[in-house]
Design goal:
The complex is a heterodimer.
Chain A (H helix, E strand, L loop, with lengths): L2 E7 L8 E7 L8 H14 L22 E2 L2 E2 L21 E5 L8 E3 L2 E2 L2 H8 L21 H11 L6 H5 L6 H13 L7 H14 L10 H5 L7 H17 L1
Parallel strand pairs in A: 1-5
Antiparallel strand pairs in A: 1-2, 3-4, 3-5, 6-7
Chain B lengths: L14 H8 L5 H4 L3 E5 L3 H13 L2 E5 L17 E2 L11 H11 L6 H20 L25 E2 L5 H18 L3 E4 L2 E9 L2 E9 L5 E5 L2 E4 L20 H8 L4 E2 L4 E7 L22 E5 L16 E2 L1 H5 L9 H16 L8 E4 L1 H7 L1 H19 L8 E10 L2 E3 L11 E3 L4 E2 L11 H24 L10 H20 L5 H15 L6 H21 L11 H25 L23 H4 L1 E8 L2 E8 L14
Parallel strand pairs in B: 1-2, 1-9, 2-5, 9-17, 16-18
Antiparallel strand pairs in B: 3-4, 6-7, 7-8, 10-16, 10-19, 11-15, 12-13, 12-14, 14-15, 19-20
Helix pairs in contact in B: 3-6, 3-12, 4-5, 5-12, 10-11, 14-15, 14-16, 15-16
Classes of the chains: A alpha+beta, B alpha/beta.
Bound molecules: flavin-adenine dinucleotide and FE2/S2 (inorganic) cluster (FES).
Organism (chain A): Croceitalea dokdonensis DOKDO 023
GO molecular function (chain A): 2 iron, 2 sulfur cluster binding; 3 iron, 4 sulfur cluster binding; 4 iron, 4 sulfur cluster binding; electron transfer activity; metal ion binding; succinate dehydrogenase (quinone) activity
Protein name (chain A): Fumarate reductase iron-sulfur subunit
């Protein structure tokens, strides 16, 4: 299989970037997309050129480190998967594949396809936790949690923090990410004590980081590898209204 | 040198309590004067960093990923064990202790293993309180399932994403303490060397992966929590960035390396399908609760799995191990798979796989229950292979998965370098020669949250009386120069082969000779081959790009340079141990029906290797079993 990769190259945060094309032969169907890029990088080394920087770690769709824009879509042509789970069988022989980094003001490019997503950690820092010091927990079955509640918390908690929601949103909003975390913790009995603070502080930080606001286009849930539903955003907004009212 | 494990006095049940009663404490006002470096942000590292910060220490935490939340603990699927006995099925701390010791084929320390079992129950309380959405019954209580090698249900899980949920909990506590300004976080920083001053660990040299800058950090104690090193085989279930560099550099600076060759080969990963493959994806062992493993009875049977009738299927685990069947421990299940595959019964494109079949479970429980239990694993299987496992059996194959070996540590989790601790998968402690499923999220968490924060005082209480180390010390200068020299050397070779080329070569040798079954001739051959790979690597590799920029090629080269040396030690260790135990199966030492044959009179010790100018010197920590009698580990 042979394809043309058109890839965004950028030396560092300060320099201007641009696209470069690479014709790559010798690929197979069952190679993953990232393995195809690995293959290209080995060719570049053979030509004494610098390799293309892109991110990954687990290569099984759970760590959230990978993520690029492929032919105009976050994580490529399929719904609800990560870049590392994409295989070359999703492309055709001879196709041109355009690869860009996540584009969002809050995610500056570091190099080539690598962006800085520490804004997401900053949101988490402002209350994305339950204050429970090691050694202070009660017996685990002392507080019952209904299966429906646990399942719903788990649906939201499944977020891998890849940033595809931000990248696919025309407003570059981080509402889905933030909502998922808030709803995970606020729906569990253990998270209730800090529920109002959590939603106010995390959503405030989301705005401070320079993410846009959500206009419910729904683009994010299509690209979310975990299929996290945008109803989470409505739920966050309701929680926020309640928290504001509570704090009046 | 005599290895002193510092096991506390008293009966097994009281040892940890006795330790806590007698260990030194530090006045809270003094704790904030003490700095601790934690390298790693997985369950072990994040748990330790957050807890040490809560206790008042000044903590710096490092990881190579862009966020602490991505440490490879995130990938664990199946679950975490605890002796809660919620299922009323006869579990207890003692039984968990015994299962773990036996699972490890009696090559670990009684006192450590007992502590692991003892602290497991409070750990579940702890995670629930931090917001981990563990699976629940309709009535609201926690659910359990079984994992390989035991007869009770003691595994807690959060769908198929247990590691992710535990890690997010640990990461959230870490960021809670960052917000409190007690932890400084250094993501995208890779530790490249350890600084030892007057025999004590006093700091590290790291490379800032964004800028390429080398940086020095000094501290009163250094904790390594850098995870497993099974990427030495290249193809493994580990993340691509997982490395052995931090512990290898510590080893070269004096820390003993214990049981380096004890590697767990997981029986249920997806098979390799091509040369270009970069990783083997794990399918959780929990699948073996309901899935049945088989191969065709006929060699080279090319029929589709569904076309092979029941009577022509060989459920070889059920046949060989009727008592445990499909839930036989990992080492046994992997070796049994390899035996069938090598004998020509393998299935799949490269004939390197066996079937894992859910047909009977679906008939018995209905598809909805199976979906609820394993839905996301089936989805993942489909994404990767394009096959629907509700319709036809999965194809699975053994893959390198977990390092039982690691830096030697005593009961306090301190290495042979005072002030240097190793926690989580990067140490050798509780799992002996084979780890039971769902015991290592447990071990990483217990080490980080419960043990280290209680043992580090004992050392730091004395450090208070000493001067704080500074990065101006000539030793920092010297170590940084050595690191820079190694980087420059790599960049100036300008050969004609890629880093990946050498990693593939190393992986092939290691996989062939140092995994499920080993023999003298093969290991000796492997050592000479790896030596050749090493020489060639340092002459022929090409690392493009520069030092002072983000350079992923250079990162890979630095990690591989250490893996090559580590591979040598692993083969040396496997060669030295003339017995079979757990995952270490020496073909020369087996029973007449092909099971592992231990030699307790000669090998009931932990091998701890000292580095000496490129040579390895063996030290032995004799294992004493005062509470249980090592038996032949039978799962028949
Ligand atoms: C696919 C898979 C599934 C698993 N499933 C289970 C399961 O179901 N149950 C179970 O009990 N166990 C399971 N395990 C094992 C378990 O997940 C690990 O043993 C455990 O999570 C290790 O935790 P850790 O904190 O020691 O290391 P890790 O989580 O690997 O963390 C290592 C940390 O060290 C950092 N680091 C590494 N090297 C450097 C360096 N040189 N410089 C700076 N930082 C560095 C990394 O950035 C990372 O933060 C599984 C393992 C795998 C691979
Ligand atoms: S590399 Fe981990 S999610 Fe893709």
């Amino acid at each position: 299989m042979k394809v043309t990769f058109k890839i965004w190259r950028q030396e560092n945060a300060k320099s201007n970037g641009g696209f470069q094309s690479y014709e790559v032969d010798g690929l197979t169907d069952d190679m993953s997309f990232l393995e195809a890029l690995d293959h290209l990088n080995e060719i570049l080394v053979g030509q004494n050129q610098k390799t293309i920087a892109y991110e990954y770690d687990c290569r099984e769709g759970i760590c959230g480190q990978c993520g690029v824009f492929i032919n105009g879509r976050a994580h490529g042509p399929l719904d609800n998967i990560t870049t590392c789970q994409l295989h070359m069988r999703s492309f055709t022989d001879g196709q041109t594949i355009v690869v860009e980094p996540w584009r969002a003001k809050a995610f500056p490019v570091i190099k080539d396809l690598v962006v800085d997503r520490s804004a997401l950690d900053n949101i988490m820092e402002q209350g994305g936790y339950i204050s429970a010091k090691t050694g202070t927990a009660p017996e685990a079955n002392a507080i019952l949690v209904g299966k429906d509640v646990a399942d719903k918390a788990m649906d939201a908690a499944a977020c891998i923090g890849c940033g595809a929601c931000v990248a696919s949103c025309k407003n570059a909003s981080a509402a889905l990410f933030t909502a998922a975390k808030i709803n995970h913790m606020n729906s569990l009995p253990q998270g209730k004590q800090e529920a109002h603070r959590r939603v106010l502080e995390m959503s405030r930080q989301m705005e401070l980081e320079g993410f846009g606001s959500c206009t419910f286009t729904g683009a994010c849930e299509v690209e979310c590898p975990e299929g996290i539903s945008i109803t989470n955003i409505a739920e966050m907004n309701a929680r926020r209204a309640m928290a504001k009212w509570h704090n009046l | 040198m005599v290895l002193y494990a510092k096991i506390p006095n008293g009966p097994l049940e009281n040892k940890w309590r006795n330790y806590q009663i007698t260990s030194q404490l530090i006045n809270p006002a003094n704790k904030k004067k003490l700095n601790v470096i934690v390298v790693g942000s997985g369950l072990a590292g994040a748990g330790a960093a957050a807890t040490l910060a809560e206790l008042g220490y000044d903590v710096k935490c490092f990881c190579y990923q862009d966020s602490a939340r991505r440490a490879h603990s995130v990938a664990a699927q199946g679950g975490i064990n605890a002796a809660k006995n919620y299922q009323h099925d006869g579990d207890s701390v003692w039984r968990m202790f015994y299962d773990t010791l036996k699972g490890g084929d009696f090559r670990s320390r009684e006192a450590n293993v007992y502590r692991l079992a003892e602290l497991s129950a409070p750990l579940i309380d702890h995670y629930v309180q931090q917001g981990v959405p563990f699976a629940r019954e309709y009535g609201g209580v926690l659910v359990n399932r079984s994992f390989g090698g035991v007869h009770v249900q003691r595994t807690f899980y959060a769908r198929g994403q247990t590691g992710q949920q535990l890690l997010l909990a640990a990461y959230s506590q870490l960021y809670k303490m960052k917000r409190a300004k007690k932890v400084q976080m250094f993501p995208r920083h890779e530790m490249l060397d350890l600084v030892v001053i007057e025999g004590k660990a006093k700091g590290i040299v790291v490379r800032d992966l964004t800028t390429g800058e080398l940086k020095r950090f000094a501290a009163d104690a250094v904790v390594l929590a850098t995870g497993g090193y099974s990427r030495v085989f290249r193809l493994s279930t580990l993340a691509i960035g997982c490395n052995g560099s931090a512990i290898w550099k510590a080893h070269k600076r004096g820390a003993f390396f214990a049981a380096p060759s004890f590697t767990q080969i997981h029986p249920t990963a997806l098979p390799q399908t091509s040369e270009a493959q970069s990783k083997l994806t794990l399918m959780s062992e929990s699948l073996r609760n309901d899935g049945r493993i088989w191969v065709p009875k006929k060699k080279d049977d090319d029929r589709n799995a569904n076309a092979i009738p029941e009577e022509e299927r060989d459920y070889y685990l059920e046949r060989r191990y009727p008592s445990f069947g499909n839930l036989a421990p990992r080492d046994i299940a992997s070796r049994a798979a390899k035996e069938r595959i090598d004998a020509g019964y393998g299935v799949g494109r490269l004939k390197n796989a066996v079937y894992l079949d859910f047909k009977h479970a679906i008939e018995r429980f209905g598809i909805e229950i199976i979906k609820d239990r394993y839905g996301n694993l089936f989805k993942m299987y489909k994404k990767i292979t394009g096959v629907d496992a509700y319709e036809e059996p999965m194809q699975i194959s053994p893959a390198a998965h977990f390092s039982m070996g690691g830096l030697w540590v005593d009961y306090e989790l301190m290495t042979t370098i005072p002030g240097l601790y190793a926690i989580g998968e990067c140490n050798f402690s509780d799992h002996g020669a084979n780890r039971l499923g769902a015991n290592s999220l447990l071990q990483a968490s217990i080490d980080g949250y419960f043990v280290l924060p209680n043992t580090i005082n004992n050392y730091l209480a004395n450090a208070l009386k000493e001067d704080h180390p500074t990065t101006e010390h000539p030793e920092f200068e010297k170590v940084e120069k050595e690191v820079a020299a190694q980087i420059n050397k790599l960049l100036f070779i300008k050969g004609d082969k890629t880093v990946d080329h050498f990693h593939r070569e190393l992986g092939k040798v290691m996989w062939q000779e140092c995994t499920m079954s080993r023999n003298k001739e093969g290991l000796e051959k492997a050592i000479s081959q790896i030596q050749k790979i090493k020489d060639a690597f340092w002459k022929e590799v090409n690392v493009t790009g520069g030092h002072h920029e983000m350079n992923t090629e250079l990162e890979k080269a630095l990690r591989l340079a250490d893996f090559i040396e580590l591979g040598l030690l692993m083969c040396t260790d496997a060669l030295e141990r003339e017995e079979s135990c757990g995952a270490h199966f020496r073909e020369e030492h087996q029973t007449s029906d092909g099971e592992a044959l231990r030699h307790d009179e000669k090998y009931s010790y932990v091998s701890a290797w000292e580095y000496h100018n490129g040579n390895f010197k063996l030290h032995k920590e004799t294992l004493e079993f005062a509470n249980v009698q090592p038996t032949v580990r039978s799962y028949k």
